[in-house]
Design goal:
Layout: H1 2-18, H2 25-45, H3 75-86, H4 95-116, H5 132-140, E1 149-156, E2 162-170, E3 178-184, H6 197-209, E4 217-221, E5 231-235, E6 240-241, H7 253-267, H8 287-304, H9 310-322, E7 331-333, E8 342-345, E9 348-352, E10 359-361, H10 363-374, H11 380-389, H12 397-424, H13 431-459
Antiparallel strand pairs: 1-2, 2-3, 3-5, 4-5, 6-8, 7-10, 8-9
Helix pairs in contact: 1-2, 2-4, 2-13, 3-9, 4-13, 7-11, 8-12, 9-12, 9-13, 10-12, 12-13
């Protein structure tokens, strides 16, 4: 208990006392991720409040567990219940254990929130990691831009696979005066799971022409010699992020219903033309293909998890039992269409951002993904009414539930396999990667527990 309290105190002090004096934005981001790692390690050390049970072999963890409920006096019980679900027990038979783990997750995430959302005494402007002078030199070699000058440049915090900044220029001819630059992270290998800058430029051009609220792309550059990585420039859109935090829902119902309309418009676009060049989300779309995908996701979780989870085992069991609800319906899907990627002004959505995970998949993938943050604000039936009114298909609730749980399982694997492994195996020493594996997984498991609880509660 002493070690856990010590880590909580250090994290709190770094957040409230040290962070306000750190002026460089890169150093401040690194500090924030260090704070996140400290809070998740503290959760792993601090005993729970549920009373004595079998001791967990904490040496097996190998790092902060994805399951923020795992403590020395709860880990054994969690592992035992998870094993029963893995052997074929129905989730309903272990509903009390599932709810117990969720209550532990609620308390753990509340402790993390108390530290990580504590406001520092002040904020300082920082420097960008994208060199604006090199970007200016690039722009000046374009026709009609020989005298262009970058008059302002500000890095936008966030993003684990891309860096983003806002800039204004003068003397750019027909190039917009206010733009956004999105650049890949130098030295980070590309992934087949992410759409490159050229692909995003092509897609955004088509969606913008179709009337969807997306930034208008201006130019794309694949030659990394200019800024050390490929980059895309788009016209700035008025508005502010609906939420700066991935985990937070919108505050206005109108914005949520606006999301339903934008999602319906996206899903209505013809796959053969607008979706040209996008990857397919899976090799097969028949029932056997869905089952194969689910087993692959489940196997990856089992192999990579630092500790079992009643919630994850129950979610996988539910997915196995309900895969027969799926069909071969295809659409362009965004795969990260929630409020940290939405700009709005005066209660109206002005742009949907971050298209790097876009693919050809099932429309239920986007609907299930946004389900937890939507139901935190409005009734799901109202959201689906707005979705259908804008041209969206009628997707059954059972499919929504399936894709809501699948989204959590898929994202957990992306973070563990695509990020955490590279850090823990010594392939990367990036603190951003470390915090994703230590911090993001704990919050994600809490979200999966929330969705599973909602599904089981409706089934009673």
């Amino acid at each position: 208990m002493t070690n856990a309290r010590y880590l909580w105190s250090v994290a709190q002090g770094l957040r409230t006392q040290v962070r306000p004096s750190v002026e460089d934005s890169g150093a401040r981001d690194a500090l924030d991720n260090g704070i996140r790692i400290l809070t998740t390690m503290a959760n792993a050390l601090e005993p729970g409040q549920a009373g004595a049970s079998a001791d967990a072999d904490t040496d097996r963890l190998g790092g902060p567990p994805e399951n923020a409920a795992v403590h020395r006096d709860t880990g054994g019980t969690i592992a035992e219940a998870a094993e029963k679900l893995d052997r074929g027990a129905a989730p309903a038979t272990l509903r009390d254990a599932i709810q117990w783990e969720k209550s532990l997750l609620d308390a753990a995430i509340a402790r993390i929130d108390a530290v990580e959302r504590a406001a520092p005494a002040s904020e300082s402007a920082g420097a960008s990691t994208i060199d604006p002078m090199r970007l200016q030199a690039y722009l000046r070699q374009r026709p009609g831009c020989g005298e262009v000058t970058i008059t302002s440049f500000r890095l936008i915090a966030g993003g684990r696979s891309r860096q983003t900044a806002l800039l204004s220029i003068a003397g750019g001819g027909d190039v917009p005066g206010d733009m956004v630059i999105q650049r890949g992270i130098p030295g980070q290998a590309g992934s087949d799971a992410f759409l490159g800058e050229a692909g995003q430029h092509r897609l955004l051009s088509r969606l913008h022409a179709a009337g969807m609220r997306v930034p208008r792309p201006i130019l794309v550059e694949n030659d990394s010699s200019w800024l050390d990585a490929a980059f895309l420039l788009a016209e700035q859109v008025v508005g502010a992020p609906v939420q700066p935090d991935y985990w937070l829902p919108a505050e206005e119902e109108g914005v949520v219903l606006g999301l339903a309309r934008e999602m319906a418009l996206l899903h209505a676009q013809p796959v053969e033309t607008v979706g040209e060049g996008l990857r397919a989300a899976r090799d097969r779309h028949d029932m056997e293909g869905w089952r194969m995908e689910m087993e692959q996701l489940a196997s990856s979780w089992t192999e990579k998890a630092h500790w079992p989870s009643v919630t994850m085992s129950a979610a996988i069991a539910w997915l196995r039992d309900n895969a027969d609800c799926l069909d071969d319906r295809r659409a362009i899907v965004h795969n990260d269409m929630i409020f940290h990627n939405i700009l709005a002004r005066d209660g109206e959505i002005t742009a949907v951002l971050d298209w790097e995970q876009c693919a050809i998949g099932h429309p239920g993938e986007d609907l299930g993904y946004c389900y937890p943050v939507v139901i935190a604000v409005t009734d799901w039936a109202r959201f689906m009414d707005a979705y259908r009114a804008a041209g969206g298909a009628d997707i059954p609730q059972r499919q929504i539930d399936y894709f809501a749980l699948r989204a959590g399982l898929r994202l957990m694997n992306l973070v563990m396999v695509g990020g955490r492994d590279s850090f823990e195996n010594g392939l990367s020493d990036d603190i951003l990667v470390a915090s994703a594996g230590a911090h993001f997984t704990q919050r994600l498991l809490h979200r999966i527990a929330f969705v599973l609880h909602s599904i089981l509660e409706r089934a009673e």
